[in-house]
Amino acid sequence: MSSKKTDAPRESQLAGTQTPDKANTNAKLQSLENFRADATGEALRTNQGVKIADNQNSLKAGARGPSLLEDFIMREKITHFDHERIPERIVHARGTGAHGYFQSYGDHAALTKAGFLRDPEAITPVFVRFSTVQGPRGSGDTVRDVRGFAVKFYTDEGNFDLVGNNMPVFFIQDAIKFPDFVHAVKPEPHNEIPTGGSAHDTFWDFVSLVPESAHMVIWAMSDRAIPRSLRMMEGFGVHTFRLINAEGVASFVKFHWKPAQGVHSVLWDEAQKLAGKDTDYHRRDLWEAIETGDYPEWELGVQIVPEADEHKFDFDLLDPTKIIPEELVPVTPLGKMVLNRNPDNFFAEVEQIAFCPGHIVPGIDFSNDPLLQGRLFSYTDTQISRLGGPNFHEIPINRPVAPNHNGQRDALHRMTIDKGRASYEPNSIDGGWPKETAPAAEDGGFESHQERIDATKIRQRSESFSDHFSQARLFFQSMSENEQQHIIKAYSFELGKVEREHIRIREVNEILANIDLKLAAAVAANLGLPAPKKGTVQVKGSSLAKSPALSQMNLPGSVGIKGRKIALLVADGVDGADVDRLVKALEAQAARPLLLGPSSAPVKTADGKALPVDASMEGMPSVMVDGILVPAGKASLQALAGSGLAKHYLLEGYKHLKAIGVAKDGKALLDSLGLKEDAGLLVGDDQKVIDAFVKAVEGHRVWAREAAAEAIPA
Ligand code: HDE
């Protein structure tokens, strides 16, 4: 949602690294990927390798007779088909992913001994899976939800999984509450409604009873929960981790991913419409960007806290409902990640990838965050039922590029045929192999950070975890006016869907009033409830009045309009030369012009030529594009003025604060719609209009228009 650009260290750092081409970057992984099958030029065969002569007809007793049981070809085919689905993920079921690489900016030796962060020449293959949390596999991409941001680094020292989200905190503080939280947010158990959303009683019942969720819930009610693109999201490791250097010195860190594409969101009305008009909006966007060579990039950075400073903050570093404000500890850039290859097969790669926060390499270690500690168990456990046994690490997408010999040889679906007779260690039969490696830095054996623990076994929450509202307040008060209004509307919408009034009242009086009275009053008014006069607890407040880094408005915006989709609305009689001029201007910016007609048939230009269109206006509705241009041509403009589809296109684009540029003769069309020119609604046929249009698209949305756009029907 940002329009401002800053001289972020990211840009200078990115410019300083070489960008290896696509063929080279994945060379390492691909050389090990002998499991990819290409059937080009191959005969159709059964799974046993028998060539198939007829794949159209089953074996029958006579052409009209019953089928024969001996038809092993049909039985094999149907048996396989009958078992083609596996259980979807309990959470994060809906997702998509891509391959790429990570490259360190330098040797971060002071911080860590992890090899992939030590060698700036090393190209570490990665696979990233983005996801929503609540909805099933087939649910919409643009629902209001947290987004998963899970990265598997295939390092030379083993796989490292950074299994994060696009929000830096979480709903609960202790893993034992996770099943309760997930049962509450998932569709309700009696009717399995709603699909892909949190606007229902069980979710709000739970979060209004569990104040530790207040901070994360306000993030989920913000624009962060409706990203414009998976490429335009920040990512966070959430928990505090440790990095360990070769001398064994540990630093606490929080991981951050900063997108080079800027951080942007859609409006709520757009998000809702997209969920129907293009359920695959985010999946398609990522796929197309990679196919067209517009490779998304993120910078990996860390906030570093020396162990000695662990207790220097007014919150607990182990509490996953807290951020370290970037104003207190800035993010140190470590390297960049580029996604440059789409999967060949969704099931084999995106569906079968198995992440686990417990997959770490020497140089990285955990903290005692009780949410992280529970996750270390849960992920491996869930794969056993989802992927059918403990050998899921042998599925191609999960295999490390590092060798992995040990005594774990049996169990369901074992692929490797291990040689040698000793599946135990120590042994003297197989020469003692495979052997342990010393933890010394150059040897690379994993060694847990030696933390002194002297404690009583106890079921208790630390007192330092008890402030649930200071950072939620900091978040709300750090938002721009537009963002605050979006948050108010999101709470009002969601609570408006809650049937039980006592839940609405509890959320307003016992949660929102403790966050911010202005927020509570505005939501209360929309629900017809009295505004609370004061909160129910004493909130100590954050040491900062505001954290500018929390507002998307303040984050670096996109640079240029590369890859942005721009609709050109055309009808019979359009001025072909003007279309050419606009298309060339957009292509010069590496944007994606799309000619949209009244139908999918070509339109006729004013000088009688057939002009093919990319889609109909119905097929590519305004919610799917970032800006709209209306080229010159009297007859075309007249036709558009008489078309409900075209008028709706412009009104909706205006309502969603998009840049609109209309030829001079199209002024009457705008007047008939009651639309007034502004910084992003431009009229004219000259270069100045194009320049202003490009600037408005780069700014993502015309925020100054938001109040005026309220009057436009949705
Ligand atoms: Fe997860 N989470 N989670 N989670 N999570 C899963 O693992 C779990 C949490 C996250 O694209 C599951 O393989 C527990 C925080 C992502 O495949 C499961 C707790 C964060 C993904 C699981 C949490 C996440 C998952 C479901 C609380 C952000 C998708 C299927 C203790 C830091 C990964 C699976 C992918 C998936 C458990 C909390 C992120 C059930 C018990 C906090 C991105 O194992």
Q: If you had to describe this structure to a student in words, what would you say it looks like?
A:
This protein has 714 residues and is α/β, with parallel strands linked by helices. Among the domains are: 340 residues, Catalase core domain (Catalase HpII,  Chain A, domain 1); 145 residues, Class I glutamine amidotransferase (GATase) domain (Rossmann fold), CATH 3.40.50.880. Helix content is 28%, strand content 14%. The strands form 3 sheets. Strands 1, 2, 3, 4, 5, 6, 7, 8, 9 and 10 form a 10-stranded antiparallel beta sheet that branches. A 6-stranded parallel beta sheet has the order 15-12-11-16-17-18, sandwiched between helices. Strand 6 and strand 7 form a beta hairpin. The radius of gyration is 28 Å and the shape is globular. The N terminus is likely disordered. The site of CIS-heme D hydroxychlorin gamma-spirolactone 17R, 18S (HDE) has 25 residues, from strand 2, strand 3, strand 4 and helix 11.
CATH superfamily of the domain at 59-398: Catalase core domain
Query: Can you identify the CATH class of the domain at 59-398?
Result: Mainly Beta
Task: Give the cofactors and ligands.
Answer: CIS-heme D hydroxychlorin gamma-spirolactone 17R, 18S
* Name of the CATH architecture of the domain at 59-398: Beta Barrel
What is the mean pLDDT? 94
β-strand amount: 5-15%
Give the strand tally: 18
Largest sheet: 10 strands, antiparallel
| Total number of helices | 21
